[in-house]
Specification:
The protein is mainly alpha-helical. It folds into two domains: 71 residues; 111 residues. The longest helix is centred in the first third of the chain and has 18 residues. The radius of gyration is 17 Å and the shape is globular.
Length: 205
């Protein structure tokens, strides 16, 4: 981790960005337990980076980490709890925002089975719908409206989580912030390139 600290102090964002990409390629070489021990701390450190491009690469890395660890339920639940503690419950608003963005990735890339997302991730995300910072609520609104409610499991009215999601979405649609209201009403459309990239990642794991 000293290498990460040195690269951060020297402003070498290209190194940290490339590190995230290389770790994604190397992940199949690690067992789920080794992934948690050796790769997860690096992934979390990169998600805390000051550079937005590095954080974006780190989100992709951690999404793949979750997929890779998902075969071991006990390890997976520990990882999800750590991510919630580090980000969803952080005193820093940009980390809480990062958690909402991670939730979007987890849903879009199908990194988790739906019921586990509902049990171990969704409650933390919905708590952030009350966040005092508009940028956090905006990320939550976009994730719920454009990703979660496009998921067949969650958009089913018979689903026990459907009503609480709709309550949060209706509240965000009436938010005092204009941008939050916008993303709670209008679904964002991913580019065809993003859709193809998402399918390739899913099929390769």
């Amino acid at each position: 981790y000293s290498v990460l600290r040195k690269s951060a102090s020297r402003g070498r964002k290209w190194f940290r960005d490339e590190l995230a990409r290389q770790l994604m390629s190397a992940m199949p070489l690690y067992s789920p337990s080794d992934t948690c021990v050796h790769l997860t701390p690096i992934g979390i450190a990169l998600m805390l980076d000051n550079v937005a491009a590095v954080r974006e690469s780190a989100l992709n890395l951690v999404t793949e980490l979750v997929k890779h660890v998902s075969v071991e339920i006990s390890l997976l639940r520990g990882l999800l709890a750590e991510l919630a503690e580090q980000f969803a419950h952080s005193a820093r608003w940009n980390r809480r925002q990062t958690f909402a963005l991670l939730c979007s990735k987890l849903i879009y890339c199908r990194a988790l089975v739906d019921d586990m997302f509902a049990r171990d991730v969704l409650p933390h995300l919905l708590d952030l719908s009350w966040d005092p910072v508009p940028n956090v609520r905006l990320a939550v609104a976009r994730t719920v409206n454009s990703d979660i409610m496009n998921n067949q499991y969650f958009c089913n009215e018979q689903n026990p989580h459907h009503e609480v999601l709709m309550q949060a979405l209706r509240r965000l649609q009436n938010d005092k912030d204009r941008d939050v209201r916008y993303f709670a009403v209008y679904k964002t459309i991913r580019s065809e390139e993003e859709e193809v990239d998402g399918r390739m990642k899913f099929s390769s794991t």
